[in-house]
Design a protein that fits this description.
By secondary structure, this protein is an all-alpha fold. The chain is 81% helix and 0% strand. It has one domain.
Length: 194
Amino acid sequence: MSQSLLPFILFALVASISPGPTNLLMLAHGAREGMRASLVPILAACGAAAAVVLLVGLGLGELLIRHPLAQQAMSWAGVIWLSWLALRMLRSAGEPLDTSAGKTFGPLSAASLQVVNPKVWMMAVAVIGVFAAPSLPVWQLALVFLLIALPCMAAWAVLGVGSARWLQAPGRLLWFNRGLAGLLLVSAWAAVLS
């Protein structure tokens, strides 16, 4: 085992389990759609985040560092999209949970969110800068990150599933959606305003 693998595992665990836009949306998705319907978006989001780590390790991170305008454009695209998702959550604030409704956060949305999320790219740059070494190649970092991110994001969906029964009361669902929408807006805008 590489000396840098254990510190990387700890980093990946903290980065994957901490609240962020994708985890908050997975919480809401789990509450609305259930665990089974959340599995594919979880796989897509985690796979996309691992792919970003791999792409940064293969040189795309250097390109973003050299072209700050591209990085800034990506950040703003992510903020605009996250703001739109938050507004959608606010609009559906009083609707009772209906698991037969169409999926609110499918695999393409989950993967795309990771690709435009500036926090994911900065995390990937940090991963490559700190942990990549001849004894720990980039593809292994991406794979380990994927294997850690999957159960972490699934935990957020499980929290959502667990809250679904409690959220059947329209007043509770209203405040749940408002709270998640607010947290989503704060996490999105904090990234570009910091």
